[in-house]
Design brief:
This protein is α/β, with parallel strands linked by helices and about 475 residues long. It has helices spanning about 15-35, 40-60, 105-110, 115-125, 135, 145-155, 175-190, 200-205, 210-225, 240-245, 250-260, 265-270, 280-290, 295-300, 315-325, 370-380, 385-395, 400-410, 415-425, 430-455, 455-465; strands spanning about 70-75, 80, 85-90, 95, 115, 140-145, 160-165, 195-200, 235-240, 305-315, 335-340. The longest helix has 24 residues, at about 430-455. Belongs to the class-I aminoacyl-tRNA synthetase family.
Length: about 475
């Protein structure tokens, strides 16, 4: 960040100003902690005050650490109005667009960085192989500080992976596999430890279920996660209800985060109200804590400075914006993130998948017949009303759910492009495209079910036992 107060602050968006104030605040704290010369500290403080003033002038709000500005846009007369934006938070995803969420706008709103060709090429050079098709196709589309992770890797410095699952039901659907399939690939190509958090405490607090049922769902979901093929020697899966009671390091980090985030901040970030239970208000600190290696002393030998990389869906980003704001104040490195797009419901990208609606997605427990029926009956089509019109004008891959699903699960790039061209030209009919998806999903789900059958309670126990992994720190 430039320290000159003469920089053109008026050209910055509210969110960019917020990030600038946050960075400058961290710089002031670092200078004071390092006992820098007084004139240097004074200059940094003046810059901070100037940035805060610009922020207030632009947004009409005082800067509050960890509380990004509301999504407002200035209009010609200088007043403000709320943009007609997609709704994206950790519990809700809503859009009126049949193509789904506008991810370019979301990058701007959240202040993350687009995963561009240069970054993908750098990843390819670092690992010496072709990047995952989730990267090539923009399914993982946004990041925070992935460059720093690659810097560490290229300089032989360690990092680790952290992802998670909120166990709200016994059966997971194919969309739930996306972060785990990608995380497994990352773990294999970079050869790093992985921790997987099962937030059974969160689901008990938010859902109408008993604490016993939440814990049961966590263990059942763990079987599906293990069935993705994770290495027990390199992976630790933990239930919050279990691990919090056994790890002093984990709880200490939770308390540190709690001390540095106010009630006003969590209300602003997560939309909590005075009527929410105090468990919800304190939960974000629990999801933040695995971002710090000292939460896992058995894995990292008590080391506190190991970088964390978090692959997750973009709706989880508010947790980690909060975490990244707190991290420097508790002497921890900021976690880096890789964000994925949302997996669409069968009924279309503008609708929400629901575990209570068995027709909203393909579940990992579905039979081949159920998969065929769901796709044929419920998958939203981008085709025309009649065969004649379809042959003449072609289909729309941007809104066709069968094509969207193939983008996630059909690994052959050439085959996917052929299907796109044929469907767009009208050569391929909707029923024929759905048949390709059925033939892709049936063996994929059946193979997962076979692997899951091999995951015994004893294997789950091995993954979920706190222990040293196959790495030296």
């Amino acid at each position: 960040m430039a320290d000159s107060p003469n920089c053109d602050l008026k050209s910055l968006s509210p969110l960019q100003l917020f990030e600038r104030v946050t960075e400058q605040g961290e710089k002031v704290r670092a200078l004071k902690a390092g006992k820098a010369p007084k004139d240097e500290i004074d200059a940094a403080v003046r810059m901070l005050l100037s940035l805060k003033l610009s922020y207030k002038t632009t947004t009409g709000q005082d800067y509050q650490a960890g509380l990004p500005p509301k999504d407002l846009v200035l209009i010609n007369n200088g007043t403000t109005k709320e943009e007609d934006e997609d709704l994206v938070d950790p519990w809700n995803v809503q859009t009126s667009n049949a193509k789904g969420v506008d991810y370019d706008k979301l990058i701007v709103r959240f202040g993350s960085s687009k995963i561009d060709t240069d970054l993908i090429n750098r990843i390819e050079r670092a690992i010496g192989q072709k990047p995952h098709h989730f990267l090539r196709r923009g399914i993982f589309f946004s990041h925070r500080d992935m460059d720093q992770v690659l810097d560490a890797y290229e300089n032989k410095k360690p990092f680790y992976l952290y992802t998670g699952r909120g166990p709200s039901s016994q059966a997971m659907h194919v969309g739930h596999l996306i972060p785990f399939l990608f995380t497994k690939w990352l773990q294999e190509v970079f050869d790093v430890p992985l921790v997987i958090q099962l937030t059974d405490d969160e689901k008990y607090l938010w859902k109408d279920m008993t604490i016993e049922k939440a814990y049961e769902y966590a263990r059942e979901n763990a079987k599906d996660i293990i069935a993705c093929g994770f290495d027990v020697n390199k992976t630790f899966i933990f239930s919050d209800l279990d691990y919090l009671g056994t790890s002093a390091g984990f709880y200490k980090n939770i308390v540190k985060v709690q001390k540095h985030v106010t009630f006003n901040q969590v209300k602003g970030i997560f939309g909590f109200t005075d009527s929410d239970c105090i468990g919800k208000i304190s939960f974000p600190a629990i999801q933040a804590a695995p971002s710090f290696s000292s939460s896992f002393p058995q894995i990292f030998n008590g080391k506190e400075n190991i970088q964390c990389l978090i692959p997750c869906a973009i709706d989880q980003d508010p947790y980690f914006r909060m975490t990244r704001d707190v991290a420097p104040r508790i002497g921890q490195p900021k976690p880096a993130l890789l964000h994925s797009v949302f997996f669409p419901a069968l009924q279309g990208a503008q609708t929400k998948m629901s575990a209570s609606d068995p027709n909203s997605s393909i579940f990992l427990t579905d039979t081949p017949k159920q998969i065929k029926t769901k796709i044929n009956k419920h998958a939203f089509s981008g085709g025309r009303d009649t065969i004649e019109e379809h042959r003449k004008y072609g289909g729309n891959c941007d809104v066709d759910v069968s094509f969207m699903y193939l983008t996630f699960f059909l690994e052959d790039d050439d085959r996917l492009e052929q299907l796109k061209q044929a469907y767009t030209s009208g050569e391929l009919l909707t029923g024929e495209l759905k048949k390709v998806l059925i033939e892709t999903m049936q063996p994929l789900v059946a193979a997962h079910q076979e692997r899951r059958k091999q995951v015994t309670d004893e294997i789950v126990k091995q993954f979920m036992t706190p222990r040293k992994l196959a790495f030296e720190f």
